[in-house]
Amino acid sequence: MSYALLRAAITEPALLEIAAHWYAVRGDRLLPAWRDIDACAFAPHLPIVWSWRYDLTRDTFIGRLAGEDIKAMLGVSIRGKTIEECFAPDVVAVVRRRYQAVIDGPSLMFSYGKVFARTGSTGSGERIVLPLADDGVRSDGLLGATVYRLGITPTARDGATIDHHNEIVTHYKFTG
């Protein structure tokens, strides 16, 4: 039921395709593993896709990958970096809480909100965050995707930022 609620909330076709792939590859397990995700299944959307693995020992998220649109918005490649190295200090706590809720639930996360660019452009963003589990049960990673609607293709020089503090976030407890 929670997957149906997530699908109903999503307005962006790319996010619907990515969520459908995640749901399909889990098979008879509660959650899919990172190795189950087939990037070819949603290749046109790779610029908006990102992933983190949760490092229990270090109690932090470590970047796996980020598409070109994500790197442009963050201004950094997340691969191999902690979440603390990739987000501004005032945003890290907010983002960590949201991602930790996806891991702990496990839950499916949907959010949307305003996006601003230094050029004066404003727009909106829509995001999904989905749990991953190597063992199919205990979440240890995230697959996410974010669509930015700014009227421009984001680049690092645009200085685009998401208003994380006022984003509307919904978590859907996922029980399969």
Helix/strand layout:
Layout: H1 2-9, H2 13-25, E1 49-55, E2 60-66, H3 68-74, H4 83-86, H5 89-104, E3 107-116, E4 122-132, E5 141-149, E6 161-162, E7 168-173
Antiparallel strand pairs: 1-2, 1-5, 3-4, 3-6, 3-7, 4-5
Model description:
By secondary structure, the protein is an alpha+beta fold. Helices cover 27% and strands 30% of the residues. It has helices spanning 2-9, 13-25, 68-74, 83-86, 89-104; strands spanning 49-55, 60-66, 107-116, 122-132, 141-149, 161-162, 168-173. Strands 1, 2, 3, 4, 5, 6 and 7 form a 7-stranded antiparallel β-sheet that branches. The radius of gyration is 15 Å and the shape is globular. It starts with a helix and ends with a strand. The model has no long low-confidence stretch (mean pLDDT 89).
Q: Count every helix, treating DSSP H or I runs of 4 or more residues as helices.
A: 5
The secondary structure category is: alpha+beta
How would you spell out the order of helices and strands? Answer: HHEEHHHEEEEE
User: Helicity range of the residues?
Assistant: 25-40%
β content, as a range? 25-35%
> N- to C-terminal separation?
8 Å
Q: What's the alpha carbon Rg, rounded to whole Å?
A: 15 Å
Report the principal-axis shape: globular
Low-confidence stretches: none
- Largest sheet composition: 7 strands, antiparallel
Number of strands: 7
Mean of the pLDDT scores?
Answer: 89
Oligomeric organization of the protein chains: single chain
Brief characterization of the structure:
With 176 residues, the chain is an alpha+beta fold. Helix content is 27%, strand content 30%.
